[in-house]
Amino acid sequence: MPSFKMMFKNATDIIESLTDNHKNPLHIGEAMACWTYYSFVSFAIIQVEVGLNTTSDSKLKKSLQDSYEVMKSHQKELSELMRQEGVPLSNTPEDKPESDPHAVPLGTKLTDDEIINTVNINFIAAADMCAASASQSLRTDVAMMFLKFQTDKLSLGLKMKELMQEKGWLKIPPYYQPPGSPDQKG
Description:
Elements: H1 4-17, H2 28-54, H3 58-85, H4 112-136, H5 140-167
């Protein structure tokens, strides 16, 4: 079975071949989408840095490091596009210095469960944001960039979900039992 990234690449190749990809200036919605996602990813990076400084779980650290690298690449790609198009960059927070997870006081330290669920919620929000931005973009290059970002987030989210299931950190809503179903108690 082909990988998720290979399927995405094939789909993007087809879409790009169907367009002339004429580069008009960004419309206001595209500029706002870039600015908003740039701001979002800049703050999400800080949350991942805090997670890296807080956890001592090697598998979680690996997932967070993968997330960090993807988010930094998104931030860089957006920064380059925004500068090229004359869109001002939003203010971003300072990077967090590395610290020893064992030196973080327990009252301020996030648990591994809290770290991974917060990062996962950010993946969900980012994937939704990227889908909306891609669908509202008229420029093919901008739409494709947001589709790539969405695919990256979904891919990371799937890997993280496996870790969450393995560690018992996955939050599962109650199962729905329609009225009158044979499994219904009462």
